[in-house]
Specification:
There is one protein chain. The chain is mostly helical. It is built from 19 helices and no strands. It starts with a helix and ends with a helix.
Length: 390
Amino acid sequence: MGLIGIILVLGLLYWVSFDRENIDYKSILYLFITEIILLFLILKTSIGNWIINGLSSSLNIISASSSKGVNFVFGNLKNPGVVSQFFLDVLLPLIFICALIELLQYLRILPFIIKYVGKVLKKLFHIDEINAFAILSYPIVSNGVFVPFKDQMKEMAPNQLFTLSIYTLSNTTLTMLASYMHIIKSEFILVALVLNLFTSIIVAKIVAPYDITQVNYEISTKSTNQKSLITRLIDSMGLGFKLAINISISIIGFVSLITFVNIIFKSACGKTLTALIGYVCAPVAFLMGIDPHSIVSAGTVLATKAFTNIFVAINQINMNAVPVKTQAIVSVFLISFANLPNLGTTLGIMHTMVDEEHGEAIAKHALRLFMVATAVSIINGALAGLFYSF
């Protein structure tokens, strides 16, 4: 069923394309083949098993390191009878994770990887310099990815701006990936990371194709931050704490609102709102390949993530009570920024980085952008489901 779902979604994307005549089918085919090969290597070979184990070990090291600092400050608040305390175990480690990423940036390790992997993407898949830089840098620096070419953004074609917008909504950041390790299996995180990269490029090439030969400027990966290492680390730690607080505020607010609305709906019609949403979105879950017994609960997760965030959504399903295939589909679908709150953030960035005319060119297609980013997640979930079917 997942394959049918992918075909239907691709057909929908073709229908909403801004320029069907100039879709680069050859590079899309190369991207899709590469994506499938990488997915096969990750999930079906000993090399992939080694990579998954390496990722799991790395995440465990990060978790242990961050827990040391958290426990030193908040040790007395830790309840030994509770397996996981969300703020202490998931959110506060963001302080350490942000600092670690900043250190790797300072040592030029991440810029080096971005530069040379970007050259490979550019050569193999007919991607311009900005595309390659944005898709590789966004997981590391988030919305700061636009700074190196902010002046050029005012001269970009609408389709190129739309492509950049797709990337910001269809991917996530390494900071958040590390925080997901407490609630999602490491192998699903790795699968989502690979699929987000390739599928977002494929979808962008279908929906918003443009002539990359007209993009004649290059991106420098050199840092413009002249602050000392200690200052940069302190700044990044402050950012991590702000992220933890902002996510906490969002979760508290949304969980409380959903609970309140559920009580009202339960009293009025005998069904909670989340249960009703689950029925509405069940067909989407079914098309992704989720088994019929889990499609209602999975549909609730999909809808909740679309309107809130991954942390609120994942509480709507008991992962241990569903098959591994369903776990894979739901997990991979969840790992992206494709939701309404982040849509608002993306539109705000576009208005800030470019002039009003260019910003409005993206804003008037906000619904299409949201649909396209969600389509990336649906395709990714369906692909993961296919590989976990055998």
